[in-house]
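To whoever is covering the structure queue this week,

Two jobs came back overnight. Logging them here so there's a record in the thread.

Job A:
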Amino acid sequence: MHPLALTFLIIGIPALVGLTYVFVRGSSGLRRYVVTRIILTLPMIFILATVIFVVLRLLPGDPVTSALGPRGSPELKARMIDDLGLNDPLLVQYGRFLGDIARFDLGTALTEGRRPIADEMGERFPATLELVVPATVLALLIGLIPGTIAAHRRRQAPDYAIRLFSVIIYSIPVFWLGLMFQLIFSVKLGWLPVSGRIDAITGIGLERTTNILVFDSILSGNWVAFRSVLIHLVLPVTTLGLVLSGVFVRLTRINVIETLQQDYITAARARGIKERVVVYGHALKNAMIPVVTLIGLQVAILLAGAVLTESVFSWPGMGRYLIDRILARDFTAVQSVVTMFAIFVAMISLAVDILYSLLDPRVRY
């Protein structure tokens, strides 16, 4: 199976499990809600694909001029434009684009070797996923627990310290923090590698099935590669996770404070329930709904917006790929990548909506 298909299968498993729960155990109201969300997703993807198709053709420049440069002869440019189908009417190009997307045919890149876009995404998308997912988990760990502590110890020393941390860490540019980590832990101390996903020599011998190197090293039993992958993940994941954690700290603190002021929390305390259970078992759970929304939004944004972290650590992910293709005016690649991002974001939104139903019973009716 193609690495890109395997990656989307891995991503889609939680959504499929959630859908199974909804249609087997969920109420009729919840089923209608989820079906409506799925139906509304299709126009969203269509509109986004249409907008990106139009915008790319309004921008100055074209892929032929970008690929050939100033030395390309007019005859060569004209022949290449004709070969790429850029002389066809816009409606013909648009229809061809929608037809390819409907068949999940991402097409061929217009520049840099004209490789199939699915192959290029199969190399790049798993790398971004391998960076974004653990960074989000780390941001949640750093954000939820201190945010809850700050809410519980409101206007005390822990609260002030945690709030100061959240403001500082969220204000630091991600590229600057990454460079400082490289300088300290790689250059000065020599503990961690400066960049890359895996040691060059170790990576040659690793059999790549999904291109998510953590999974591939486990599946192949290559523990040397597994250790190398984890070591290379430490700095970029820590950099991205720390910067992202600031917003989770503040959002968690605000919502836990509001929840702790509710009547049912007062009633729980009056019944003698332990304070730890009240705060972490009741207040935090009910304060998680806005946080879940933010998780979905942040993961979607990070998939396309981790370009600074990828650039600092020479991480061959989708952020850098998309920027390169935009600069090259590669219409086909940009259209296909943005559309695939839209599908992925739709899957995340659906998973978040299903999770809503588990956290907030009011959604089920």
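Job B:
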Amino acid sequence: MQIHGFQKLTLLDYPEKVACTVFFGGCNFRCPFCHNGNLVLHPGDEPLIAEEEIWELLEKRRGVLDGVCVTGGEPTLEPDLPAFLTKIKSYGYLVKLDTNGYRPEVLKELVLDGLVDYVAMDIKNAPDRYALTAGVPGLDMTKIQESVEYLLTGVVDYEFRTTVTRELHQKQDFDKIGRWIAGCRRYYLQNYKESDFVIHPVFSGYSREQLERFAQELRRTITVVGIRGID
């Protein structure tokens, strides 16, 4: 297992749960605004976290932590992910998976095997701007569509979310997204924030007022639309 980060306590990553977060390296996307660029582009340069450190914490914090968030990078690229999640579940914890949805076959396997309790899937942009926003020319949208349609069935609890930048996201994009994922359980607009590890640090975020205008329009087709990343 190539684990490159471990946050021992978070009150933010797993909605309404006290959790810890495990970070995997590597990704099949190259989103230019990604704030974990070091994990995406150069995972081999990042320190490795021993699995035993995770198991020791999960044993020690039984009754304190509710769950474990698994993120990256893109965790569905990790071949041993099912075995890893199986062991987490053996400790009695809930599991939240962060994913870009580009491996729907893995997503389905994990859900059907009872290894995931909550999925947070990124919606990079409207379908016609997806490849540009994900940094992958020739991206196969059928894979994204398969994951979206699967989650919309409600087989597992989930959210969709979009990291919003002024340079890549406009009102018409959210109009299209609202029609695309209409009726989903919850959708979050995450305002872009600069960090030291952004792949291409040329982006900027919106004001709270503008994000709220986007959210109001989205609520025409999605009941729960929230905003994150505004101080």
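Note for Job B: The helical segments are 37-41, 51-60, 81-90, 104-112, 130-134, 141-152, 171-180, 208-218.

Please reply-all if you pick these up so we don't duplicate work.
Q.
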